[in-house]
Write a structure and sequence with these properties.
The protein is an alpha+beta fold. The protein is built from 4 helices and 6 strands. A hairpin with a 3-residue loop joins strand 4 (105-109) and strand 5. The protein is globular and about 35 Å long.
């Protein structure tokens, strides 16, 4: 889980302030949470899972997206979450990023920390399995 009181979090004014944060503090889901919290002023569910426990990440996300908390989309929308399969593990989904309003994607991985990429690149298009967004009608 991210430490939300770190000094860099207080400086977030735009999505560019979220680029370059270390994966050791903000994994891919935590970057999504931080974007929603700081840019959209909304909360995402927190999942306390080791980012490298791919079977548990996969199981959790595939069951979660089928609950009323989430809406599965046919195509990307601004501020939706892209769920992906990175690498050669057996998981269906083990990675997440946020589709930004300009169509780029904010995501984080171990070797780079948080970065913005082009999800229309063939590499990303091939590994994106789901687009989801929070169901604003969902009541806890």
């Amino acid at each position: 889980m991210a430490i939300w009181l770190d000094s860099e979090v207080f400086k977030v004014k735009s999505v560019n302030d979220l680029v370059g944060l270390p994966f050791s503090k903000y994994n891919c889901w935590e970057i999504c949470e931080l974007y929603y919290r700081k840019i959209l002023k909304k909360e995402l569910p927190t999942y306390k899972i080791d980012a490298f426990d791919f079977p548990l990440v996969n199981k959790t996300m595939l069951s979660e997206i089928r609950t009323p908390k989430w809406i599965i989309l046919d195509k990307p929308e601004p501020n939706c979450i892209a769920l992906m399969k990175l690498g050669y593990c057996s998981a269906t989904v083990n990675h997440a990023g946020v589709i930004l309003p300009d169509g780029r994607m904010l995501q984080a991985y171990e070797s780079t920390g948080s970065v913005i990429v082009d999800p229309q690149n063939q590499l990303w298009k091939r590994i994106i399995k789901y687009y989801i967004k929070p169901n604003v009608e969902y009541k806890k």
